[in-house]
Structures are given as C-alpha cells and as structure tokens.
Write a structure and sequence with these properties.
- By secondary structure, this protein is an alpha+beta fold.
- Among the domains are: 140 residues, no CATH class; 73 residues, no CATH class; 190 residues, von Willebrand factor, type A domain (Rossmann fold, 3-Layer(aba) Sandwich); 109 residues, Jelly Rolls, CATH 2.60.120.380.
- The protein contains twelve helices and 51 strands.
- Strands 10-18-9-8-11-13-12 form a seven-stranded mixed sheet, with helices on one face.
- The chain starts with a strand and ends in a 6-residue tail after the last strand.
- This is Calcium-activated chloride channel regulator 1-like 10.
- It comes from Homarus americanus (American lobster).
Length: 947
C-alpha cells in the first residue's frame, strides 16, 4: 500500500446553484458560467501519474448553495489614498522608521535606505517597461531621535514634522519572528487589492556596496509588487501542503520546481512527499532567467514578472490559487495604476532617483469643530456633548497632544485655542475640556455653516508655530441634517487636500423614525472617505423631554475611538480601552464582569462607571484582584459629576484577571456603563486594531460582487499573536418599530489561512466576511473584543534560528553571501501559514476595539444571491492499492463563510482542461456540508483511474 500527498493541478470550484420554483435544485453549470465563478487551486494525486498509462486525473469539487448567481471572482479594485502613480512616478510613498531602531544605527539605516530606494526606483522602471518609478518619498523618523550634531547621526535641520500616525507603506522596524530582517508584505486582502504594508528589519539596510544594494532592492521590488498590486508569491515552500516546493507538471509528467520562469529552472528536484524535500535553484546555471521576481528574486539576472506567455498557470503557487491562474503581469496591468492605458510605457532617459523628504513624528493635534445651533438645545443633547468633551480632553487625549475647540452656527468661533495638554492633573486639560459655552446658540440649524467651521479650524492650526495646518486632525460633531451646498463641499475638499488634513465626523444626534431606513449619507461622508478618516453616528435616544445616558456614553466612545485612531497606537501613553460593557437597568440588582490587565499596559488603570443619575449607582462596588485580594472601594472611589462618572484609580494594578460587581439601581429605560481604560506602556506591547475592506465607503448589501470583509490585527510589537479569540459585534443603531434596541450580530474572526478571506494563517490578522445584515438599510456600529482565549493564545518568538554558512569565496555572487535570505527553504517563509517554531503563552489580556459605523445604503437581496466562499485548501491523498482517494478541506458557508453550503459535487477528469470545464466522472459519497470553518475529511473509492 502506498499513500502519496497531493502535489499539483486540481481545480476546486465554488459556485451557486439555481433555486427552482418548486424548491432547491442543483445542476451542472455551463462551462462559461462555471468558469466565471471558479476559484482554482493546483492539486494532483501524483500516484495517478505513476500508472503505466500516464492518465492525468484531476479532482474537481463544486460547493453548491441555494443561490441564483455565479459571482465573478478576482475583481480588481482601485487603490485609494495619498499614494498615487502620476506620470509614471509614485508620489506619496511613506517610509517609517520605528522606535525599535536606536539612533546609534541611524547612519547606516538612512544611508542604506537612500541607496536601496534609488536602486528600487531604477529596477521598478525596468520591470514595468518604463511605466513606474519612485518620485517622492517621505521618511518619518522616530520621535526619540534627536537632531543634535553631536549625536551619531546628525539629522537635517530644519526638520519638518508630521502629526499623523507614522505607519508607513514601508516600515523599518525590529526583526519579525518568521521573516527575520528580510522584507515581507502583510496582505490581508485578495488578488488585485493593495496590501497593508511592507516591513523590513533595520539590518536589511546594512550593506557593503552597490551590489548588495541592488540585491536588497530586488527583494524589495518583489514585495512592492505584492503590496501595491495585490499579486502573491510564485514559489513553493518546504513542508507546505498547499504550495509544495515541487510539483508534477501535468503536461510533461515530470517533477518541476514550483514557480514561474521564462525558461527552465535548474536545481535539485525532489518528491515533495519525501521528508526534507526542498528546491534550491542552482547558483551558477540560471543566468538565462529574467523572470519571475515573485519566484526567484534572489537570482541576479531576474528582473521581470511573468506574462501570459511565460506564466505557469498549473503550478501550485499562492498566486495561482488566489488569482485564478492569471499571470502576475495581467493582474498588474488591471490595477488602477495602469488600467485603460494609464502611465503608458516610456523609454525616456528620465532621472529615476527619488526625492526624499525627512519628517519627524510630532505629538498629535486635534481640533474639535462642534455645531452650536438651537437643535442642540433639545432634551439633554448639549449637556451630554459638554460632558463628552470634558471626558475626552481631561482623561483620554495623550499627554503632549495639542487640542483646540471651535464652535459654529452661522459663523465659527474659537472657544479654546490650540493648547498643549500635559499630565492628567494639568489645569490646561480642565480649561480646554470645559471651554464649551453652557448655553447653546439660538441660531436655527438651517443657518449653520460647516465650511466656516473648517476654515476656523485651519486658522487655529496655522496660528500655532511653524508647522502650519499640515497633518492636523479635525473632528466634526454635527447633526445629520441641515444645509450643505455642493459648492461648500467642493471648497472643503480643496482645503483638506491642500493642508493634508484628516477629517473625522461624529453625527450627533441623528434623528430617525423608529424602524425606518437610513437617511441619505451626510455631505461630509465624502470628505471622510477621501482623507482616510472615520465616521461615527450617535442616534437620538430621547425619553419624552429627557435623553438616555446611552447617548452620552456613545458620544464618549466615538470621541475616544477617534483619539485612538489619530494617535500612534504603539506610542507609550496612548489611550487603551480594555473593557466596555453596558448593564441595563431594572433587570438585576448586581452587575458583575471581568477584565484583564497585562504588561503592555502602564502601571495604572481606571475603573469607571457612567450613570444617568448618581443614585443609580448603589453603595456596593467591589473589585477582586488576580491574587484574590478583595478591594472594598468605599474609601477609594472618586466622583466627577461633570462627566457623570464614578471611578477608581488602580495604581500599580496587579497583572492578570480581575472581577468586579456593581450594585445597579438604574431605571429600566436607563442603565450603567462600566469601562476600564489604561495607557500603552511600550511600542513592543500588545496592539490590536479593527477595520473593514470597505473603509469609509457606503455598503451596498444588494450587490454580491462587492463583499465586505472584517479584519482585526492582534500583535505584540511586530510578533503575531496566534489563537486569540476575536469576536466582532455588528450592532444596528437606533430602535425598531416597537422601540426596542436591535439585536447585535456576533462574528468570530478566524486566522486560519484558508485563502478566502483569510490569506495567511498565523500572521496575526483575523478575518471573516461581513454577514448579511437583516432588515432595512441602516447604520451599524462595528466593535470587537479581543482576549487570550482562556490561555490558548500564544505569541510568536524569534527571529527564527537560522543555519549559518561558512564564509563564501569572494568570486561567488553577492546573494550567496547573505545567509539570512538565500533561497534554501530553511531561510524563506512562508506559504499558506507562518510556521512559528518558538512561541510562548500570553498572559491574560483583553481589548475592546471600535472601528466606526458601517453605513448600509441598500437592503439585502430578497433572493439568495450570495455564493459560498471559495475552497482553496483542498488536499488529496491517493491509495492505489485499494483505489481510494482521501480528501481534506475547510468547509465554506452558504453565504460566503456563514452557515453551511447546500451540498458538494466532485468530478474526476482525465485532463486539466476538462477538469476546469467540470467535465468528467462524478464522485459519489461526498459528505453533507459542515458549518463554515470546519475541517472536512472523507475517503472515496474510485475504480476507473487505471483505464
């Protein structure tokens, strides 16, 4: 009996079946329709090819749901943001140097960066046939670096400053536990979509000469292609069941290196099912190759990407799997940089050296622009707004930040000039936080001038020092109605672009009829989307002439989230929301919960209770430390009636899991809100963030061709945290027709690397498709809780131990001198997952994240139009003795990765071409689909493969 692992060339298809009038009905799709909806992965049972007849057999699995549409996959979307390709030159490129890089190393880092970027621009021009180069690059330096000439590296003076968070497109930081100092790209989205960032270790820029700069630039160019254009690796990896180092070519029936090249790749070929199999291209006999950079960037002659003529679409590569077998150059040409003939090929001898501008991270600057009209005087709206402003300025804004406050009605006024706020006890915090007038303006909402508010904010920013308004953060708090002309919106677009502002909006309060569909988007929405800001909505929650305290807490949460999003998240002193829970009144006399404090937080934390009326908080408030010590808080409670808060400062708080109980005396239409906040301790500590693929765009639920994916990133410094529990909460704002709150939807995010939607397992990025949102269009608050998963979460440690080579002879090519980035599989990483050899268990931790409000502008389709997610991790093993095929895959859902599919179909075909057309013998005995995300394993008997 022999058992062979799958190596190459099977099509895995995800499609949807028609729903007949009499009920669900599955049938064969026409080849063209099936092809449009197919996602392909290369897997071929190798023992089939060992038969004397050499018949090629391909397994095809079709996942069928109750639907009436086959989705077109691999749609290439535009790339947004300040990074743009203008007249064949990239502008807006940002390289950030993190606090992990000490200033004593700044000389070699900056020198190496200049040389590598210069070489990268030249190689980019060559690889794209004169279509692209680097023109303008901004390099952000750590705040800790000083400009004194007496230091190791004297920086340029005068040095410009940036208030925006400095997370660059290319990040120079500490070594990664999986990649070391080699460049790598975090890609959370799919084919043709821009990646998250490129990361390199500081040592990567340490080079001895021009040859090493060219080598480094070639590696960086491959990562730039992944980051900017959404292409993927075209090489295999040792021990990877999905992307093996070699595969059986279905055309020649010979073992070949997994990759893409414009010629034969020479090197040691092996059977990937054998222990220790890896592919190493020969160092001396591959000088005839010029492609592909995504497969062999280490070879000095390789400088191009594979085109349709040179692409190996049957190779089991990550690129083929995620991009449906299309060539890298085809994907690149369809991105916004080049689609429709943009940035056409050029042969001009232009200057390709990029202009570098060095800036230094400065403390953030916030200007709150607040509507002050008569509509704010209804119920307790203005009172709650004043309390929320005091809370965010006094307690949340990080020390050293600058804060200004502007109000506007028919005109705009500065009520607090841009002021530096230091420690929490600073008088300046109290003054700025209490700067709003006690009474509102009598001017009606119809006379408000939003443009005036923005102009006054710019005047405020420009009046403070030589930095001007560039990089400032503007936070508008305004109602969701009132006049805003197209001319005013155009002027605001011009101003935010001119001064590089980030616009954020809180719609407060937004009044809508119970159960009604969401109103048209506010005019400021386009400004938010264009500047990479966020938009929050606080619904009007009135009770007669009164207001629910829920409105105040929601406004506080929105302002805290905006402060967090517009400050360096990893900087010491950045605000962190650890725990956030609402306890309705009139249900239980005691409200209890847990929270965790970890070493990445500062020594102190604040346990806070927000209330409508002070009498709603009973006398009993008890905290239990991780050691079991019970804290009777009677003598340590503090009150701040200006923000409706009772709080306990936990100084030098124990690390670990805390419990608490609070006596809840709130009325049935009010409640208590418990929050635990702390400060970030160091940039190497735990960091978490939450976002979606839609950004600030409006969501069209009726269009299955534009699905939305929810992402969360959980890391300790640069190291991914694996097996964390990440639960997203999607909660529709407002009330239903009965006056009750809508029920939230909870979504567990996965880091499973199945490819759709999660790209790579173990990278610390967790993802799921946004499920169908029932009911009418509306606004949904997206938040998430992240924790240590009852002790299962671990953090990757490294960098990995690498085999050291003996010092090579001087005649060897330069790339062989770099032991840390040679081709050998022990030194390269990674395929469908990041193999972390060394991990440690994380201590208990907890984070509450808020992304913003998802604005859904169309209803969900009445028919089932949403297809299942693609199956990209099918594995096949063959036992030719008993004629048995063993299959293993991750179950898709009915709608993307939610629920379960209707049934599976599979065929075995004699050729790759027929398999892709779903022509072959159908396999019977496939299991009933399991819930999405579950691992399927099954064995099938097949008797015709020897014919």
């Amino acid at each position: 009996m022999t058992t062979a692992a799958a190596a190459a060339a099977a099509a895995v298809t995800t499609t949807a079946a028609a729903a007949a009038a009499s009920g669900p009905c599955a049938h064969s799709w026409p080849a063209a329709s099936l092809e449009a909806g197919r996602a392909t992965i290369s897997l071929l049972p190798e023992d089939f090819l060992d038969m004397k007849t050499r018949v090629e057999v391909v397994v095809v699995v079709v996942v069928v749901a109750l639907a009436t549409l086959v989705m077109l996959l691999g749609h290439v979307r535009g790339l947004d943001g300040d990074l743009k390709l203008v007249n064949n030159g990239y502008e807006g490129v940002v390289v950030s140097i993190s606090d992990h890089i000490q200033q004593e190393h700044c000389s070699h880092v900056i020198h190496g960066l200049k040389a590598v970027l210069r070489e990268l621009s030249s190689q980019l021009w060559s690889a794209t046939d004169g279509r692209a180069s680097l023109r303008e690059v901004t390099v952000t330096l750590p705040r800790a670096w000083r400009t004194s000439p007496s230091l190791t590296c004297s920086l340029f003076s005068p040095l410009m400053y940036s208030s925006w968070p400095t997370e660059g497109h290319i990040r120079v930081t500490a070594p990664h536990p999986g990649f070391g100092s080699r460049p790598w790209t975090q890609q959370s989205q799919g084919c043709g979509r821009q990646g998250d960032f490129i990361q390199v270790g500081g040592d990567f820029l340490r080079a001895a000469g021009n040859g090493s700069h060219a080598h480094a630039a070639r590696l960086l160019l491959a990562e730039w292609a992944k980051f900017r254009w959404g292409v993927f690796d075209e090489r295999g990896h040792a021990h990877d069941p999905l992307y093996p180092p070699t595969f059986r070519d279905p055309n020649t029936h010979q073992w070949a290196a997994t990759g893409c090249a414009d010629g034969a790749v020479r090197g040691r070929i092996c059977d990937p099912s054998q222990p220790g199999c890896s592919f190493t291209p020969d160092l001396y006999t591959n000088n005839h190759l010029s492609a592909s950079l995504l497969a062999f960037p280490h070879l000095p002659t390789v400088r191009l990407f594979c085109t349709d003529n040179t692409h190996t679409h049957v190779a089991p590569t990550k690129h083929n799997s995620l991009c449906g077998g299309r060539s890298a150059w085809q994907i690149i040409r369809q991105t916004q940089d080049f689609v429709g003939g943009r940035n056409a090929a050029s042969s001009s001898n232009r200057n390709l050296e990029p202009v570098l501008m060095f800036v230094q991270q400065a403390n953030p600057r916030y200007v709150f622009v607040i509507e002050n009209t008569a509509t704010m005087n209804l119920q307790r709206r203005w009172e709650y707004l004043r309390k929320a402003m005091r809370r965010v300025v006094v307690y949340d804004v990080p020390a050293g930040a600058q804060v200004g406050v502007v109000t506007f009605s028919s005109v705009a006024l500065t009520v607090a000039p841009l002021t530096v706020v230091e420690s929490q006890e600073s008088d300046m915090r109290q003054r700025v936080g209490s700067s709003l007038p006690r009474n509102t303006s009598p001017n009606p909402e119809t006379q408000k001038c939003i443009l005036c508010g923005l102009q006054e904010a710019l005047r405020l920013l420009n009046a403070k020092g030589r930095r001007g308004a560039d990089g400032g953060t503007v936070i508008f708090i305004t109602t969701g109605s009132g006049p805003t002309t197209h001319l005013d919106v155009d002027r605001m677009h011009h101003l935010v672009n001119q001064y590089h502002l980030r616009m954020n909006v809180v719609l407060y309060p937004l009044t809508e009829r119970r159960g009604a569909a969401a109103a048209a988007s506010h005019a400021l929405h386009t400004l938010v989307e264009a500047t990479g800001g966020s938009i929050f909505t606080v619904m009007d929650e009135g009770v007669g002439n009164d207001s629910k305290v829920k409105m105040m807490v929601a406004l506080m949460d929105a302002l805290l989230a905006l402060v967090q999003q517009n400050a360096p998240a990893s900087a010491p002193g950045a605000p962190v929301l650890v725990h956030n829970t609402a306890y309705p009144g009139g249900i239980a006399s005691m409200s209890a919960g847990t929270f965790a404090l970890d070493d990445s937080l500062g020594p102190d934390a604040r346990f806070s209770i927000y209330y409508y009326d002070l009498n709603h908080v009973g006398n009993s408030i008890q905290l239990t430390a991780p050691s079991g010590h019970k804290i009777a808080s009677v003598n340590i409670q503090e009150e701040d009636g200006d923000v409706n808060m009772i709080f306990i400062n936990l100084e030098k708080a124990e690390r670990g899991l805390w419990t608490y109980s609070v006596e809840n005396c709130a009325d049935s239409h009010q409640g208590l809100y418990v929050q635990v906040t702390a400060k970030q301790n160091s940039s190497a500590g735990l960091q978490a963030r939450l976002w979606t693929s839609a950004g600030a765009q409006l969501i069209n639920s009726s269009d299955p061709s534009t699905p939305v994916v929810v992402y969360a990133e959980v890391k300790a410094g640069v190291a991914p945290i694996i097996n964390a529990r990440v639960v997203a909460k999607i909660h529709r704002l407002g009330t239903n027709v009965t006056g009750s709150d809508y029920q939230p939807i909870f979504l567990h995010l996965w880091d499973n690397g199945v490819g759709d939607p999660d790209i790579t397992q173990g990278d610390g990025v967790y993802s799921r498709y946004l499920p169908q949102l029932p009911g009418s269009p509306g606004r949904y608050l997206l938040s998430a809780d992240v924790d240590y998963n009852n002790g299962l979460a671990v953090v990757a440690q490294g960098p990995p131990t690498r085999r050291r080579y003996k010092k090579p002879s001087l005649h060897l090519p330069f790339y062989h001198h770099h032991y840390h980035d040679t081709w050998n599989s022990e030194e390269t990483c990674c395929g469908h997952s990041l193999p972390h050899v060394h991990t440690r268990r994380t201590p208990p931790f907890l984070r509450h994240l808020t992304s913003g409000v998802l604005e859904v502008m169309s209803p969900a389709p009445y028919r089932d139009l949403i297809p299942p997610s693609r199956v990209l991790d099918l594995r096949v093993e063959v036992n030719d003795t008993v004629h048995e095929i063993s299959l293993r895959w991750t179950a898709p859902g009915d709608d993307w990765d939610t629920d379960r599919a209707h049934h599976y179909e599979a065929v075995v075909a004699p050729s790759w071409k027929k398999a892709r057309a779903f022509q072959g013998d159908r396999l019977t005995g496939l299991p009933h689909p399991l819930p999405a995300g579950t691992i399927h394993t099954t064995s099938l008997h097949f008797t015709r493969y020897e014919e």
